[in-house]
């Protein structure tokens, strides 16, 4: 989709690659309707009529419905259920969905503990790649709630600009991860967020990839089976060590930062690019939060 003639304007900075500009309202709905036979105006109209009758929902723009339809395989009823789950989770999980401002000290602190990257080069199958990894090995500096807050801010910004992506690869680099990081997750919140990822996040997950998997990974996976889709866990791809030859069979070097034998800039440079983009959306995140508070 990103290479079609109706794609939104690209950012000029070279490190941004093929990422569209993260600007509210920039998604070309008319172009997508013309190019995507599965996206129908009558389905958008039906969702808009339904949403206006739902007192728990904030005001939604026509383009907002595209990501829900696409992630639900263009099933209107499934999209309605996804929208309800999406907003219900956000209104009842303030530790993750409130104060979404990268300049707040608590949020900024996690930007110094982890890298958050949206890779500026689509995979050959048209999917986008997200990378998340620790840069500070001290578990005392890691805060699970703020980690998830930033991760979901990044996903929200990405899917708003590219709502009909065929899928997303999520890479977690566990190189500096200790089992004490895992015990800081908070199991109630972890369970709630896993349910949100499965039922409310308007995004098609192509694959979850774990790099530098530690010796305790089997223990972690056994615990996670209590919270999430076992089939999805079984499909998780895991790679050990610093030999990325097997990873390159899944994702070519042209789609990866130099840290993983790729041809793109370093993970740190791409993290700074992603942070800059999130910072530009501060007003948009604040407006969304205010709209939810009024409901």
From TrEMBL:
Pfam families: CRAL_TRIO. Residues 104-268 form the CRAL-TRIO domain. InterPro entries: CRAL-TRIO_dom, CRAL-TRIO_dom_sf, CRAL/TRIO_N_dom_sf. SMART domains: SEC14 (SM00516). GO terms for cellular component: membrane. GO terms for molecular function: phosphatidylinositol bisphosphate binding. This is Alpha-tocopherol transfer protein-like. It comes from Thrips palmi (Melon thrips).
């Amino acid at each position: 989709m990103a290479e079609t003639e109706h794609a939104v304007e690209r950012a000029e900075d070279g490190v941004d690659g093929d990422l569209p500009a993260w600007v509210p309202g920039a998604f070309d709905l008319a172009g997508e309707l013309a190019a995507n036979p599965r996206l129908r105006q009558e389905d958008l109209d039906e969702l808009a009529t339904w949403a206006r009758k739902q007192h728990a929902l904030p005001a939604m723009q026509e383009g907002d419905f595209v990501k829900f339809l696409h992630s639900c395989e263009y099933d209107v009823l499934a999209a309605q259920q996804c929208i309800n789950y999406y907003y219900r989770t956000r209104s009842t999980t303030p530790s993750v969905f409130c104060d979404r401002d990268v300049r707040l000290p608590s949020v900024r602190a996690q930007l110094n503990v982890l890298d958050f990257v949206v890779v500026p080069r689509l995979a050959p199958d048209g999917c986008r790649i997200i990378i998340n990894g620790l840069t500070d090995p001290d578990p005392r500096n890691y805060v699970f709630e703020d980690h998830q807050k930033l991760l979901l801010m990044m996903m929200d910004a990405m899917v708003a600009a590219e709502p009909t992506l065929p899928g997303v690869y999520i890479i977690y680099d566990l190189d500096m991860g200790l089992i004490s990081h895992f015990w800081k997750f908070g199991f109630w919140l972890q369970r709630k967020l896993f349910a949100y990822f499965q039922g409310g996040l308007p995004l098609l997950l192509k694959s979850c990839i774990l790099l530098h998997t530690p010796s305790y990974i089997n223990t972690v996976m056994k615990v996670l089976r209590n919270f999430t889709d076992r089939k999805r866990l079984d499909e998780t791809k895991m790679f050990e060590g610093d030999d990325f030859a097997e990873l390159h069979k899944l994702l070519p070097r042209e789609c990866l930062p130099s840290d993983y034998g790729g041809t793109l800039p370093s993970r740190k440079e791409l993290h700074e690019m992603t942070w800059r983009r999130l910072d530009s959306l501060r007003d948009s995140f604040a407006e969304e939060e205010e709209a939810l508070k009024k409901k």
